[in-house]
Design brief:
Elements lengths: L1 H16 L2 E3 L10 E3 L3 H14 L9 H28 L1 E3 L4 E3 L4 H16 L1
Antiparallel strand pairs: 1-2, 3-4
Helix pairs in contact: 3-4
Bound molecules: zinc ion.
């Protein structure tokens, strides 16, 4: 009898190590085991997508890698919006059509520098 319990305990341990949990869902009440809703597989899927998008997972958590990608996106977006704004300022309606003034270095240089900084980072 003792041997049978040891085997059952060893098998429960296999289930636990593979992400299964005892059913504690009152509505289910099956008394059996459930996989954790596929969370490990979903998380692996998420990490793969993160790496494909350029996320660096070495030495950081997946959340840290995602936050770094979001910060990079925000910096690129901010630089692109600033450059677009500077270009828009050079466009003037002349009554019949648009005229495009040359960009003054005061507007041109900071836009270019922001774009280059954002792309290099
Ligand atoms: Zn259940």
């Amino acid at each position: 009898m003792l041997e049978k319990n040891d085997t059952a305990e060893a098998l429960y341990d296999v289930l636990r190590r593979n992400g299964f949990v005892r059913c504690d869902i009152a509505a289910c009440n099956c008394g059996s085991w459930h996989a954790r809703h596929g969370w490990p597989e979903r998380f692996a899927e998420f990490k793969d997508a993160l790496q494909e998008a350029g996320g660096e997972l070495t030495g950081v958590t997946a959340l840290g890698a995602l936050q770094a990608l979001i910060a990079e996106r925000d910096k690129l977006r901010e630089a692109a919006e600033y450059a677009a704004h500077q270009l828009e300022k050079a466009r003037i309606w002349g009554g019949m059509d648009w005229h495009y003034n040359p960009l003054h270095p005061m507007n041109y240089r900071p836009a270019l520098e922001r774009l280059r900084d954002a792309v290099r980072a």
